[in-house]
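Format notes (please read before filing issues)

Several people have asked whether sequences and C-alpha cells are stored in separate files. They are not. Every record keeps both together, in the order shown below: the sequence lines, then the C-alpha cell lines. Line labels are part of the format and must not be stripped during preprocessing.
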Amino acid sequence: MFEQTFKNIDDILHKDAGCGSELDYVEQTSWVLFLKYLNDLEKDKKTAAELTGKTYTSIIAPEYQWSVWAAPKLRQVQFPDGRLSSKVKIDHNALTGDDLADFVNIKLFPYLKKFKANAKSANTIEYKIGEIFSELKNRIQSGYNLREVVNHIDELRFRTHAEKHEMSHLYEGKIKNMGNAGRNGGEYYTPRPLIKTIVKVVAPKIGNTIYDGAVGSAGFLVEAFEYLKVVKTKHASSLSTSDTVTLQKKTFYGKEKKSLAYIIGIMNMILHGVEAPNIVHTNTLAENLADIQEKDRYDVILANPPFGGKERAEVQQNFPIKTGETASLFLQHFVKILKAGGKAGVVIKNTFLSNTDNASISLRKLLLENCNLHTVLDLPGGTFTGAGVKTVVLFFEKGLSTKKVWFYQLNLDRNLGKTDPLNEKDLAEFVELQKLALSGVEGAAESENSWTINIKDIDQSTFDLSAKNPNTPEEAPLRHPAEILKNMAELDKESAEILNSISGLI
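Then the structure lines:
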C-alpha cells in the first residue's frame, strides 16, 4: 500500500512547477507525512488514555487537526435496519485549490511554527513540531496537486508496528535516492548495511548515550534505535516502561549544520518512533574542544562525517591540530567528546591512514595514544554511490593506547554500484572474524582478507597505518624486454623445427 501511494504522489509532484527531484520529494512530502503520522499518534495516545480512565489533551488545536483541514470525512450512511455503511469517504467539499494553499501557507504553517516558542522544553514533541515548521516551506504550488497528495497520504495508516516499519523503510529509500541522484551524494545517506554492521560491532546497550555529531538524515541513530529494541526484546516480550523512556529521551543525540538535513533527520527519527529526538541545529565544529567537559561526553559515537569539506581559519582555531579538512576536525571532536571507556565506529576517507602532512600525522598519533584503535575495516570503491572516494571504518575505545590493530579488507568479486550495492552478507565474514580478533586468541582472526599489525613495528615518525594486506599474493615481476625477445626467438626456433618435422612426413 505504501509503495503504490508513494508512486502516485511522485507522479503528482512531477506535474507541479515547484517540485520534481528526489530532494524536493522528500522535502515536500515530509511535512504532510509527518502531520498524518502525528494524527495517528494522537489517536493512539487518546485510546491509551481512555483505557486507563484518563483524559487526553490533543497537541493540535481542533481547526488545525488533520481530520478537519486535510481529510474531513462524510458521515457514514445509516441504513433503515440500523446498519452503517462500511466506507467513510473524504468530503469533496474539503479545501482545495487556492483555498487549500492559502490555508496551509497563511494559517497552518505559522500556527505550527509557534510551537517552538510555546514549548516547555526542547525535549518535547511540541518543540520539534515548531522546529520543523520553522525550517520548511510548502513548495507544492498548486493547491489542486496538494489536495491530491493529501488524499493519497490520508490512505496510509501508522497504527501498527508493521505499518510504521514499511513506511519508514520507503522514506529511507527516498533519502537514499537523494544521494544516488548526485544531490549532496553521500551527505545524507550512508549505506544501511554498513551502518547496521557498524552498530552490531560497536554493540551499544540500553542506558548508553549515543551521539552523531554529523547526523545528516540520522541513519546511525535510527539503526541504533532498531538494534537496541531487537536486542532487548530477544530476552523479554517487550520493552519495560523504564527502557522505553530511556530510549525516547536519554539515549540518542545529534548535531547537524545544514537546515534540510537537520529537518530530515528529525522527521526520520520521529517516523521511526523516537518522538522528540535530541538533535540540535548547529555547526558541531564551531564548538571549542577546550570547552567540552565531562558532562558533555557520550558513551558511544557512530558517525560518517562529510567527505572533503573545508573549514575556515576561525573554525580551525577551536582545535589543537589545525587543518581545513572537515573529517579530520570531526575526528578530533569525537576523540574529545567520547567518555573514557566509550566506544566508537567512524567512517573516514582511507587517506587518513597514510597522508604525510603534519596534521594527519599528528591526528594518527593522537588517536593511537588516547584510544585503542582495535579494528579497521577497509571498504572497496563504490561503497558510497556517487561519492567517488575509498573509505575505511575506524573502531576504537577511549582510555587505553593502541598496541595492535586488526585490519579487514573487504574484497568482493563484483563492482559495487547503484544497481548492485553493498549488502549485509558482504560484511558477514568481517563481523564473525572481528569477534575472534577481540577474543585474544592469537591468529584466530587471520585470513586472506585480514591481518594484525603491532604499533611498535610501524614508523614512529609518521604513524603510517596504510592498509597493505600482507596475505595478497605477489604479482609476478615484469620481465625485461631483452628476456622477452630471447623467449620469442626460442619459440620461433621451436616452431620451425616442428614445421620441418611435419614437412618430412608429407
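For reference, the curators noted about this record: The chain has 17 helices and nine strands. Residues 2-159 form a domain with the Ferritin fold (CATH 1.20.1260.30).
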